[in-house]
C-alpha cells in the first residue's frame, strides 16, 4: 500500500521502517530540518536498539521529505504520528495533530479516497475534531472530499520499539466506517498473520501468539490508550508506595514484588520498585487524562495518587542521600547548619528516563540533578547515550559530564544510580568504592543486592529494602 507518515519521531520513524520492511511503499514527512538531514544521510535521529540496522536495510525505499504536498496526494493511507505535548495546564496539546490534518486536507485530490489515521495519543474526541478540520478545509477549497478518519493508538515502548511494532500484543482500531477498518487490516495483515520473515536482529519471540485486531469506536480507542498507560503507571506507583512502607517496617520490596507477581491475576511485570516513571508518555498521558476528566466534571483520585507517589520518589531519593551524608559527617564529627549536600560531589549514573533510549523527556535524573544543585552539590553525570540530550535540556545548570563511568566516583561523596542501563549492572563496585571520599551508593533501581554492594565497601541504600 502507498503510505504517508506525518512525523518521524519515536513513533513515526519506527512505523516507517517497519512498514517499509513489510514491503509497503512508505513516505515520511517531518518539519524538523535537522532530523531530515540525518534521515537523508541514512542516519537514525533517535537511539533505539536495532533501528540503525533496519534503517540501513530499508532506507533506500523510504522517501523522507518536508512536504506533504509531495507525497500525500498519491497516498492511500496517511498516518499522523506527531507529538501531543502537555500544555501548561497539563492537557494534551493537539495543535500539531490538527495542523497535520489541515495540511493533509489542503493537498488531497478531489477524486480520490483516503484513510487518515491518528496514531498520536490524543484526548477523547480528537478524531471527531480531525474529521471536522478536514471537512472545513474541503469546504474552503470548494470541494467534496472523500476521507475516512480512524484512530489507531500506538502502544510501543521506547527501548523495545521495533519489537513492539513487529510483535504487538494487540492492534486497536477505532473507526466509525468499515472502509477505514478494511484499509488498516490490509496495512497490518503481515503483522496480524505474522507472514513476514523476521529481521535477523529481531527474531520472533518463541512464545509469541498472533495478535488480535480489536475494532471499536474512535472515542473508545482513544480512551484505551490513556487507560493502558495510566494502568501501567499506577502499577509502578503502587509498588513504590509499598516500597516506602517496607523501609519503615523492615520488609524487602523485591521479595514482596516476587511474592505478589506470582499471582497470575497480578503478574510480575511493572512491579519493580525504584525511581518511578518518566519519559514522554506516562507523565503527559496521566495528566492529560486528568484534564479530560476535569472537563467532564469527574474526579480521578487513583490517577492523581499515582502521580503524587511517582514524583515523591524523586524527592525521597535526595532525602535519603542527605541522610546518608549527614551520618557520614557525624562520624567525622563535622557539624554544620548548611545542607548536608553543600559542597559534596555526587555522581549520577544514568540520565535517560529508561535504558536503551536517548530520550530524556521527564527523566527522573533531571529533577534529581536540579535538586542536588539547589542544595549546593557538585554534580557529575554519566550516560552511555543520553548525555548530549541531557546537556541540552539542563542548559546553564553546572554539571560535569564524563564519558568514563569510573571517573564519576573519583573523590566523590556519593553515587546515585538513576537509570538501570545494562552497563551499570556490571560495574566493578570495589574499584568505584575505593576511589571515593565516602563510599555511599544510592541505588535508585535496586540493581545491586545490599550484600554485594556492602561486601564491595559501599554504604548501600536501595528502594524499599532493609
Ligand atoms: N514515544 C513513545 O514511546 C510513544 C509511544 C506511544 C505513543 N506515543 C505518542 O505518539 C505521538 C508521537 O510521539 P513521539 O515520541 O514519536 O514524538 P516526537 O516528538 O519524537 O516526534 C514527533 C515528530 O513530529 C514532527 N511534526 C510535528 N508537527 C508536524 C507536522 N505538521 N508535519 C510534519 N512533522 C511534524 C516533529 O518535528 C517531530 O519530529 C505522541 O502523541 C505520543 O504521545 C509515543
Question: Could you explain the architecture of this structure?
Answer:
It is a single chain. With 466 residues, this protein is α/β, with parallel strands linked by helices. The chain has two domains: 2-216, Rossmann fold, CATH 3.40.50; 306-461, NAD(P)-binding Rossmann-like Domain (Rossmann fold, 3-Layer(aba) Sandwich), CATH 3.40.50.720. The protein contains 16 helices and 14 strands. The strands form two sheets. An eight-stranded mixed beta sheet has the order 3-2-1-4-5-6-7-8, sandwiched between helices. It has a six-stranded parallel beta sheet with strand order 11-10-9-12-13-14. Helix 16 links the parallel strand 13 (440-443) and strand 14 (459-461). The protein binds nicotinamide-adenine-dinucleotide. Residues 6-12, 29-32, 35, 81-84, 96, 99-100, 103, 120-121, 154, 156, 158, 280-281 line the site of nicotinamide-adenine-dinucleotide (NAD).
Question: Which cofactor or ligand species appear?
Answer: nicotinamide-adenine-dinucleotide
Q: What order do the helices and strands follow?
A: EHEHHEHEHEHEHEHEHHHHEHEHEEHEHE
Return the CATH class of the largest domain: Alpha Beta
Amino- and carboxy-terminal Cα gap:
57 Å
Major sheet: arrangement of strands: 3-2-1-4-5-6-7-8
Major sheet size, sense and barrel closure: 8 strands, mixed
CATH superfamily of the largest domain: NAD(P)-binding Rossmann-like Domain
Helix residue percentage: 40-55%
* Parts with pLDDT < 50 across at least 5 consecutive residues: none
In angstroms, what is the radius of gyration?
A: 24 Å
Dominant shape: elongated
Overall average residue pLDDT: 96
Count of β-strands: 14
Quickly give the structural class.
alpha/beta
Count of spatially separate domains:
2
Amino acid at each position: 500500500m502507498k503510505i504517508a507518515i506525518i512525523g518521524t519521531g519515536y513513533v513515526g520513524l519506527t512505523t516507517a521502517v517497519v512498514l517499509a520492511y513489510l514491503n509497503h511503499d512508505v513516505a515520511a514527512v517531518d518539519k524538523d530540518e535537522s532530523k531530515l538531514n540525518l534521515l537523508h544521510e541514512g542516519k537514525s535521529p533517535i537511539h533505539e536498539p536495532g533501528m540503525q540496522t533496519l534503517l540501513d536495510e530499508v532506507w533506500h525505499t523510504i522517501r523522507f521529505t518536508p512536504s506533504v504536498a509531495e507525497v500525500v496526494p498519491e497516498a492511500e493511507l496517511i498516518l499522523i504520528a506527531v507529538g501531543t505535548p502537555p500544555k501548561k495546564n497539563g492537557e494534551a496539546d493537539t495543535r500539531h495533530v490538527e495542523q497535520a490534518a489541515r495540511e493533509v486536507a489542503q493537498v488531497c485530490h478531489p477524486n480520490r479516497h483516503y484513510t487518515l489515521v491518528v496514531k498520536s495519543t490524543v484526548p477523547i474526541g480528537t478524531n471527531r475534531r480531525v474529521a471536522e478540520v478536514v471537512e472545513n478545509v474541503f469546504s474552503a477549497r470548494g470541494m467534496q472530499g472523500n476521507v475516512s478518519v480512524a484512530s489507531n493508538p500506538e502502544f510501543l515502548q521506547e527501548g523495545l520499539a521495533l519489537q513492539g511494532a513487529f510483535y504487538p500484543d494487540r492492534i486497536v482500531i477505532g473507526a466509525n466506517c468499515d472502509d477505514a477498518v478494511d484499509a488498516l487490516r490490509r496495512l497490518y495483515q503481515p503483522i496480524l498473520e505474522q507472514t513476514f520473515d523476521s529481521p535477523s536482529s529481531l527474531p520472533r519471540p518463541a512464545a509469541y501468539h498472533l495478535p488480535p485486531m480489536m475494532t471499536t469506536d474512535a472515542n473508545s480507542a482513544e480512551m484505551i490508550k490513556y487507560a493502558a498507560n495510566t494502568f501501567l503507571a499506577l502499577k509502578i506507583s503502587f509498588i513504590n508506595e509499598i516500597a516506602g512502607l517496607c523501609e519503615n517496617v523492615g520488609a524487602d520490596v523485591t521479595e514482596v514484588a516476587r511474592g505478589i507477581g506470582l499471582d497470575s491475576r497480578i503478574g510480575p511485570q511493572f512491579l519493580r520498585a525504584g525511581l518511578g516513571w518518566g519519559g514522554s508518555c506516562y507523565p503527559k498521558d496521566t495528566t492529560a487524562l486528568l484534564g479530560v476528566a476535569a472537563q467532564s466534571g469527574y474526579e480521578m483520585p487513583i490517577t492523581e495518587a499515582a502521580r503524587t507517589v511517582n514524583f515523591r520518589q524523586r524527592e525521597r531519593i535526595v532525602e535519603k542521600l542527605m541522610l546518608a551524608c549527614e551520618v557520614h559527617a557525624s562520624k567525622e564529627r563535622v557539624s554544620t547548619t548548611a545542607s548536608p549536600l553543600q559542597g559534596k560531589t555526587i555522581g549520577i549514573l544514568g540520565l535517560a528516563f529508561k535504558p536503551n533510549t536517548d530520550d530524556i523527556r521527564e527523566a527522573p535524573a533531571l529533577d534529581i540533578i536540579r535538586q542536588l544543585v539547589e542544595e549546593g552539590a557538585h554534580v557529575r553525570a554519566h550516560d552511555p547515550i543520553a548525555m548530549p540530550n541531557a546537556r541540552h535540556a539542563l542548559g546553564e545548570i553546572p554539571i560535569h559530564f564524563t564519558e568514563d563511568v569510573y571517573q564519576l566516583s573519583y573523590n566523590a561523596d556519593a553515587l546515585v544510580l538513576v537509570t538501570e542501563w545494562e552497563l551499570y549492572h556490571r560495574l566493578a563496585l570495589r574499584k568505584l568504592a575505593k576511589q571515593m571520599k565516602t563510599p555511599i551508593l544510592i541505588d535508585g533501581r535496586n540493581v545491586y543486592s545490599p550484600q554485594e554492594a556492602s561486601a564491595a565497601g559501599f554504604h548501600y541504600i536501595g528502594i524499599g529494602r532493609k
